[in-house]
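May I ask for an example protein's residues together with how it folds?

___
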Amino acid sequence: MLKLSLFLAISLEGASAFMPSPMLRAPSGRLSSRSARAVTVPRMTLAIPPPKDTDLTDALPDCPATIWNTENIDVAAEQAKYRAMDLPDSPLYITATPADVEKGFAYFEENKEMIMAKLKEHGAVLFKGFEVTKNPKGFREAWTALGLNPCLDPIHTSGLRSFLDAQNGVYEEVNKKSLQQHYIGLHNESTFKKTATFGAFVCFSPASEGGGEFFIADGAKIFRDLRTDLLEKFYKDQVRISVSNLDLGFLEGLGGLKEKGMETVKNIVSTAVAPKFDMDLDMIYGADGKPMRLQAVEHRQSPINRHPDTGMPVWFCNIHNHARYLRDNRPCTVPEVGMTEVYYGDLSHIAPADLDHINEVSNKHIVDFKMEKGDVLLVDNYRVLHGRDIFEGDRLHAVSWFRKGDEPVNLVKPDNFFNSLINGAISWK
């Protein structure tokens, strides 16, 4: 049972996240050793973030539910509207002047209305040259000054997200050496069930031997430029994302009991393991043509979603990162158990030519940049997708996630069992 649990947990990196690397923790960072199932926590004030000196360990509210607004989208008409518009560049660059540097955190406090308005307009804002954001505490004080409300990562409960600094609500990004040669494609930090409203990525140390560029793409522009007939097909048929593979060929040795063994394993994973990840998953055999492979597959979802604030339709789909065909044709160091796949809503396969088109349009809109120490990228997670290139050497990037601030908050924290078990029992190399 534990083996199956850990096997599935390790595999679920495909659900928009990867395993962190405690080897690269900042000196001020720490992991919470406290594990609690269904721990009642005080209700946080949603209108404003917690005070900058509040210990956020075991105090962050859950990531909010994904806001789906997908009905009655006229794809061709909406694309035509976009083509008549001049969509702004993303990200907007804000480079600190000497006066801005001298102001420190006051710069963010004084300019928060302007910054949040620019975030809404551009989808992402990149801050460069500030001194106060070069450590986790300063990074936290900067986003507190902007009035951002922190929350847990969408798949926090899986154990695949580790805090770099729990006290300040800062998660470690994908820095581990075993994944440094893995290209992370475009994705929103989202599952069918949960989505962070905003994210703030920070560089504490760029890759020591090169690479590791961060990149983003505007989901509005991808929506605009995808072939209309293909986009309409995806919108009609929807998609399902497989986030793990469990190859159970050893059950062939059971002979006439093979089917019973397959059903037993499926039931164990479905009822005792999958719920720990707080995702809506179905356990399905043979979806990719391999009858002894059990895949954990998310529910049907639209690849197009209306932005919850602006109402603008955007490409809201992690296919650029999760499609097996695309992963097989770019640098990938994820083991087979963690390989992902994307199907149409009826689990039929997506043609390689169609995936090539999605890849081409997505890549056309990628903007990449090398972040230096203290640089911060603020993103609208419903509009802008993000990813990371391969790198060499040591790298330390981190991220905090945020809710809009007016959503209802559960008084009961989500199950933290796997997060504490996996990060406490395994030293990731």
Q: What stands out?
A: Residues 1-45, 417-429 have pLDDT under 50 and may be disordered.
